[in-house]
Design a protein that fits this description.
Elements: H1 10-18, H2 26-37, E1 42-45, H3 52-63, E2 75-78, H4 82-95, E3 104-107, H5 113-120, E4 126-129, H6 131-140, E5 150-154, H7 156-174, E6 180-185, H8 190-199
Parallel strand pairs: 1-6, 2-4, 2-5, 3-4, 5-6
Length: 203
Amino acid sequence: MTFSELGVGAKVLQAITELGFERPMPVQEVVLPILLNEETDLIALAQTGTGKTAAYALPIIEKLLLEEKSKRPRSLVLAPTRELALQITSEMRDLAQFKEGIRLVCLYGGQPINKQIETLKRKPQIVVATPGRLMDHYNRKTIRLDKIQTVVLDEADRMLDMGFFKDVTKIIEKVKNRKNLGLFSATISQEVMTVSWMYQRDE
């Protein structure tokens, strides 16, 4: 299948072409139609280098076209480390480069929180964050999660194994109106299965 056949629009296709992507990778062929067209949850077994970031990033960016402008974030991607969070943000910016008005923010520890608070005042639609720093912002009331529709846990097994289980579950519980919860994981660990059992819908 082509990206167009999977439901990706013209402006995002332009970005894909600029980045040199020719055809969808297997994880993208499976995940794209689900996150684009359905209100459902999923677990995807995906190693680094398999195209997993684009698999969830493309639907997130594409669906922002269909929504009214919101003053609060609509999509949340959680990552276990600052390095991965920055990498995801960079790739999502590239995929959204021809879409006007899409704003992303990356929240992680080790960066002055006041700088991040200023960025949040620009009302980003997409938030990429490490769990601890996101909870810090939530507790300071510098971010609200009530309008988020899509939540993605990238490298879920690694993140939950690093001691973020409590923060991750607290964050998911605060996203009351989500339509999709995607767990992207290299392995199906006990912690991943627990989060799936607790929060994913069995359809």
